Amino acid sequence: MKKGEITITITIGLVVLILTAVIFVQFKTINQTDITALENMREDELKTEISNFKKKLEEITAEVKGVESKTKEYQKAVDSNQEASKLLEQELEEQNNLLGKNSVKGNGILITLTDTNNQKISSEDLRALLNELRLAGAEAISINGQRIVYDSYVVDIGGTYISVNGQRIVSPYEVKAIGDPTYLESGLSKKQFGYIDTKTGEGKDVSLKRQNNITIDKYDGDLNMEYAN
């Protein structure tokens, strides 16, 4: 095998690995859904939630098939270095967007959570919001300018402030999400059991509005896998 073909083959493997990691994160998000909340839902709300799960599963299945299709496409392009290079460049650009390595811009929503004299926003509030946004199809998310990626962590530090990706953030917490604004808003605004109703019912200050041309900066840290190398 020629040197150029070896390089292309190795790159194909890397692209498939990246796609597999992204799909794994989507499965992980679904597995972390609050089962207790589902048990408390009314029948019509539960049917809607099940429909949403089925849709997300179909999307993930489509992505798996897409990986297989792309792999075959690359294999056919191996004989033409120029064609293969173009395909790889496009695919890597898309995967860098998904992994947070590129700054992105698009329509979506802005959720603002603010501490009050009676109620403080916790890291748990933010983590729950991130899960809801991912389930609603958010393609990119940031909190106070910190890009959320597959290994981001959001934790309380000594009960005094919240840390995101190792950076200190304070109230108000501005969570930007790029995606279909209708899906994102409806995913958070379900009556009684939706995120907004739940948090406002707890006395917390949470607001949501649609925004066009949201910019979310790239993630500047290192993307590490603990067991894969």
Overall geometry comes to: globular
Total beta strands: 8
Name the CATH superfamily classification of the largest domain.
Protein of unknown function DUF881
* Oligomerization state: single chain
- Rg value: 20 Å
Please name the CATH architecture of the largest domain.
2-Layer Sandwich
Order of helices and strands: HHHHEHEEEEEEHHE
**Low-confidence parts lasting 5 or more residues at pLDDT below 50?**
26-34, 225-229
CATH first level of the largest domain: Alpha Beta
How are the strands of the biggest sheet laid out side by side? 3-2-7-1-8
Total domains, how many? 2
* CATH fold group of the largest domain: Alpha-Beta Plaits
| Helix share, percent | 40-55%
Mean pLDDT: 77
Query: What class do helices, strands and sheet pairing give?
Result: alpha+beta
Helical element count? 7
Q: Distance between termini?
A: 25 Å
Largest sheet: 5 strands, antiparallel
Tell me the strand percentage band: 15-25%
Describe this structure in words.
This protein is α+β, with helices and mostly antiparallel strands. It folds into 2 domains: 3-99, no CATH class; 104-216, Alpha-Beta Plaits, CATH 3.30.70. Helices cover 51% and strands 20% of the residues. It contains 7 helices and 8 strands. The protein has helices at residues 3-31, 35-39, 43-77, 81-99, 123-135, 181-188, 195-201; strands spanning 104-114, 140-143, 146-147, 154-157, 161-164, 167-169, 173-178, 205-216. The strands form 2 sheets. It has a 5-stranded antiparallel sheet with strand order 3-2-7-1-8. Strand 5 (161-164) and strand 6 form a beta hairpin. The model is unreliable at 26-34 and 225-229 (pLDDT under 50).
